[in-house]
Structures are given as structure tokens and as C-alpha cells.
Specification:
Blueprint: E1 6-11, H1 15-26, E2 31-35, H2 42-45, E3 71-74, E4 80-83, H3 118-122, H4 137-152, H5 179-190, E5 195-197, H6 236-242, E6 246-250, E7 253-259, E8 265-271, E9 277-287, H7 291-299, E10 325-332, E11 347-349, E12 365-367, H8 373-376, H9 388-398, E13 402-409, E14 418-426, E15 432-437, H10 442-461, E16 465-470, E17 511-513, H11 528-547
Helix pairs in contact: 1-6, 1-11, 4-11
Length: 552
């Protein structure tokens, strides 16, 4: 059924889509925002650690559910298997209003200036698609600032000599260090390193009508009971809805971007919460559904002018899938390090993000969020028991004396790491599912080995016993996960990118992307603040073009 036409239809109410909805609705445009999940109710999911987004033993509390969603993974030997959202190889990202920002750890990093110029700095890399971004850190800096102030970031950059230049300080003071972070700080400074407070999308003081963090230990992987943790669902979307120009439709699964005979997007075809087929006409379409689902939607949007999917005449949609390889080291101290107050992660070290001889990029190292006992069961030195009395003795002896440093490796994009659509497997709505194939670039493992050794050295210097590294396994499959990016990269050349520098699909001037899909590379940090900054950047261009009637 075709519905009344609106100015803009947005697919995905996560970090990117929520910001675009607010920016366009407050500019006077009529907006429909489609979200496959719903609004999160903390009382339904609370802080049961078996119901966490990180340990989904009882299911995925923030979606998608197992019964209706599936994907196909191509193994290294060429065989395929169907996977569900509870399996790691699905590369799940939350499906709800607010997206992953409902349950994330809320680290709010800006990418470094070097991250936008990897090809210029490091040159050509064999078997990779390493490239410079078509925009610079300086281009994005005002939009980073806008995200920090409108969504709300707590931090302090004064002891971090590696951060990019900024015009304003953070709007909220940094979170205090816990005992583990204080011990790491002392050691890191002694080793000539530069520890600093991790910037957080979490209120350290009351801000923008939301209360300050109450320091629950069950934070990462869970929704916040008081909305101190910030995402689009509790910051910009309420503003968008208050304008009267924005409607959020939940339980809606997009199946196709409709493209007319002139090669322009004319709306979105989707299934509503009652599984009825609907068509939402619009002057303009924005896709913000995650790197996997945005690529899938474009690839399933076939027309006479785009027989291989919207914007995919040069076979770049779905290519260059990246996430983050996480590595580090852990150990046990003679003294207790445990503090009940969360979130736990407080200290970062950026000395190893760039300038490492023989390596491309690097990554940050941070102390970890508080692992609840179930998650701590997966933290073992090699050879330790994982069941029975020995396992229980380990839990009792070491849980409060644990120290850990780890972080994300800047992955190297490659053309074979990809999202395509499966020719035979479909979801519950009859839509062809994501097919994930390819592998990581070999440089990822070199960087991971380097970074894990640096973490090990710091922990040994602390005087820890039974130190072990969490280095990269050569059996690790294709990356993606909660930090997924790169499948609709921006660029100046339509032959080697999917959108232009403003997130506008090459050859479809009224179709935009505004999520991690745009990333040319994914930095050595959690990517959400860059996703938010890009959403403001894309929105600014849409508003500028709208005033001149460019999209109507």
C-alpha cells in the first residue's frame, strides 16, 4: 500500500539515522524514520548478565531476534552455513531505536588527523584498498564538536598529546579513574607513555536534562536505567518528534529502495509491524541501517538502470567490510583492583595509534569495563579449567585482582571482505539475506601482535603475575561486528567508491548514506562519534541542497 508522500524517509534509527532525522525535522522537512526494532524498555531487560548484548545466553535483548533473521557466512574453504544473531559470525549490531548506542560502552573517540590520510602516509599496501578519505579531520572537526555538545561527551584531552586540534573543550568533565586505572596510569607514566581519561558519551554531571551517571557496574551490554548514557534515542530523537515533522515507525523492515526510470529514488518499500507490505514515497531517501544492512538494502534495490543494486554499477557496494580486531593482555596483581562502581573503563593510551615502525596505523589501549562473573568465565590464562571446582576456585581467587589492557586495531580494508546478498536464502519476509565472505588483511594480525605485546609489557611492569596476551588468532574470520564499517565508502571517483564526500550515492542524487558504511578506513578507535559527526555533515549538505530545491 502506498502512503502519503513525505520529504524524507530514513531507514535505521541508530546513531546516524536519529541525528539526520533531528537535523531535517528541525529544518522544517517532513520525515518518516523506519526502524526494524522498537523502543527499549529497561524494566524488560534490566541488568541480568545472561541477557546482555555481550553475552546473549538468553537471547538478544536489543534485537534482532533469532526466529526471523538469518545470514549466510562463506567459510575459508568456500563452504557456506546459515547463522543466527546469537552467533558471533553473524556480526550482529543492535536493532532498536537508538541502535547500538543503547547498550554500547559509550567511548566517544574522534579519529586522528592521520586516520583520514592513510594512503598518503603509508603508501600503497599490497592486496588492500587503502585510500585517503575525500574529507579531512579539519572538515569534520566542527561536526565532531557538534556531536560532543548535542549528544553529550565527558572527557579531558589535556594529557593526550596525540589528539587532533579542537576549538572547544569537552562539555562535561571526565570520569574519575578507578583503582585499576590509577595503577595503570602510574606505570604508563613511568614508562614514558601518555595516559588520559577516555572520552565518554555518558553524563559525568547532569547535562541537557538528563541525570549524571550512577556508576552501575552493569553498563556495557545493557541499557541505562536513568538515561545517563547518551544515544539518538534519548537526545536528538525527542527533539525531532517534538517538531511535529518526524514520525518514527517501529517494527518496520525495509526491503527495497524504489528507483524510478530516471534513476532517482522515489521512496522505500517495507513491511510494517503487522507484516503488511507498504510503500513510503519521498523526495529523498537516507539509509542508516549499519554497514551490513545498508549494503544489503542497496543490493536488493534493483532496477533497470541499476540491475546490480542501487549505486552498484561499479561493484563497490558491500566491499571493504571492516570492524575491529581486539587485542591486549591481562594479568593478576597481589592486591585487589576491583571497585564496584562502574562503568570500569576509564583510561586510554594513544601512543601506539601511529608511528609504529613497519606497521600501518595501530590502535588504542584501554582498561576494561567491569566484566560480570559470567563474562569473566571467558577470561582465563592458557590451560586454566573452565568448569568444576577448579573453575570456581579460580573465580573466587582472581575476580577482584584482575587487570586488563586491550583495544581495537586499525584494520586494513580489502576488496574481498564483503557483504553481498545470498541467491537462495531469504529471511522471514522473503528478502534475500546478507552473505558475508572474504577475510581480514594480513597486516591486521601484524598490528594485533604488536599492540598485544605493548599491553603485555605495561602489565608486567605493574608487577602482575600470570600475565598472558590476547593476541590475534590466525583462525579469525571476516571482521565486522558492533564496529562494522566501510561497505559504502565515500570518495571522489565513482569507479572506486559508492558515495561522494557528502554521503550522496554516485548517480542517484537524492539517495544518501549516513552511517559507518561511509568510512574509508575505521580508525584505531570505537567509531560511533565519527558516525555521529558524519551524520551531522551529511545533514548539513542535505539542508543546503534542499534550500535550493536540489532534491525536489
Amino acid at each position: 500500500m502506498s502512503l502519503p508522500k513525505v520529504n524524507v524517509v530514513i531507514v535505521g534509527a541508530g546513531a546516524g539515522g536519529g541525528i539526520v532525522a533531528k537535523e531535517l525535522a528541525t529544518a522544517g522537512l517532513s520525515v518518516v524514520l523506519l526502524e526494524r526494532g522498537g523502543w527499549v524498555d529497561y524494566d524488560k531487560h534490566n541488568d541480568d548478565e545472561l541477557w546482555s548484548q555481550r553475552t546473549p545466553a538468553l537471547g538478544n535483548p536489543f534485537g534482532p531476534d533469532d526466529e526471523r533473521h538469518r545470514r549466510v557466512v562463506v567459510n575459508a574453504d568456500g563452504s557456506t552455513r546459515v547463522v543466527l544473531p546469537s552467533e558471533g559470525s553473524y556480526n550482529n549490531i543492535a536493532g532498536c531505536v537508538g541502535g547500538g548506542a543503547v547498550s554500547y560502552g559509550a567511548m566517544a573517540w574522534r579519529f586522528m588527523p592521520q586516520d583520514f590520510r592513510l594512503r598518503s602516509i603509508y603508501g600503497e599496501v599490497k592486496d588492500s584498498t587503502l585510500a585517503d578519505w575525500p574529507i579531512s579531520y579539519d572538515d569534520l572537526e566542527p561536526f565532531y564538536e557538534k556531536a560532543e555538545y548535542e549528544i553529550g561527551v565527558a572527557g579531558d584531552y589535556t594529557t593526550n598529546p596525540f589528539c587532533g586540534p579542537r576549538k572547544k573543550p569537552f562539555p562535561m568533565p571526565a570520569f574519575p579513574y578507578n583503582k585499576e586505572a590509577r595503577l595503570i596510569e602510574q606505570t604508563a607514566i613511568r614508562m614514558g607513555l601518555h595516559p588520559f581519561p577516555i572520552p565518554m558519551l555518558r553524563n559525568s554531571v547532569p547535562y541537557n536534562g538528563r541525570p549524571a551517571c550512577i556508576h552501575m557496574r552493569s553498563c556495557v551490554g545493557f541499557a541505562c536505567p536513568i538515561n545517563a548514557k547518551a544515544g539518538s534515542h534519548n537526545t536528538v530523537l525527542p527533539i525531532a518528534l517534538a517538531t511535529g515533522n518526524c514520525e518514527v515507525r517501529t517494527g518496520c523492515v525495509a526491503s527495497e529502495i524504489m528507483v524510478d526510470e530516471h534513476g532517482r529514488a522515489k521512496g522505500v518499500r517495507y513491511f510494517d509491524a503487522d507484516n503488511r507490505g507498504q510503500e513510503q514515497p519521498a523526495d529523498l531517501v537516507v539509509v542508516s541501517a549499519s554497514a551490513t544492512e545498508t549494503a544489503r538494502l542497496l543490493l536488493n534495490s534493483r532496477s533497470k538502470l541499476f540491475p546490480n543494486g542501487a549505486g552498484n554499477n561499479n561493484d563497490w557496494v558491500g566491499r571493504n567490510l571492516q570492524g575491529h580486531l581486539y587485542v591486549g593482555a591481562a594479568g593478576f596483581l597481589d592486591e585487589e583492583t576491583y571497585e564496584e562502581a562502574g562503568p570500569g573503563a576509564a583510561l586510554g593510551i594513544s601512543d601506539f595509534n601511529h608511528g609504529n615502525p613497519g606497521l600501518i596505523g595501530g590502535g588504542a589501549l584501554c582498561n576494561e569495563f567491569i566484566p560480570l562473573p559470567y563474562l569473566f568465565c571467558n577470561t582465563r590464562p592458557p590451560g586454566e579449567a573452565r568448569w568444576g571446582k577448579a573453575h570456581k576456585d579460580f573465580q573466587r581467587r582472581y575476580y577482584k585482582r584482575f587487570v586488563r589492557l586491550h583495544g581495537p586495531v586499525q584494520e586494513i580494508p580489502n576488496f574481498s571482505a564483503r557483504v553481498s546478498v545470498d541467491p537462495s536464502v531469504k529471511d522471514a519476509w522473503g528478502i534475500p539475506v546478507c552473505r558475508l565472505s572474504g577475510s581480514r588483511h594480513p597486516a591486521d594480525f601484524q598490528q594485533g601482535d604488536f599492540l598485544s605485546k605493548k599491553a603485555e609489557a605495561i602489565i608486567r611492569e605493574m608487577g602482575a603475575t600470570r600475565v598472558w596476551r590476547n593476541g590475534p588468532s590466525p583462525n579469525l574470520s571476516l571482521s565486522g561486528g558492533q564496529h562494522q564499517a566501510g561497505t559504502c565508502r565515500m570518495g571522489d571517483d565513482p569507479k572506486t567508491s559508492v558515495t561522494n564526500r557528502y554521503g550522496q550515492i554516485h548517480q542517484i542524487d537524492n539517495l544518501f548514506v549516513a552511517d559507518g558504511s561511509l568510512h574509508v578506513s575505521n580508525g584505531g578507535f570505537n567509531p560511533v562519534l565519527t558516525i555521529m559527526a558524519l551524520a551531522y555533515w551529511v545533514s548539513y549538505h542535505i539542508k543546503s541542497g534542499w534550500k535550493g530545491s536540489q532534491f525536489r
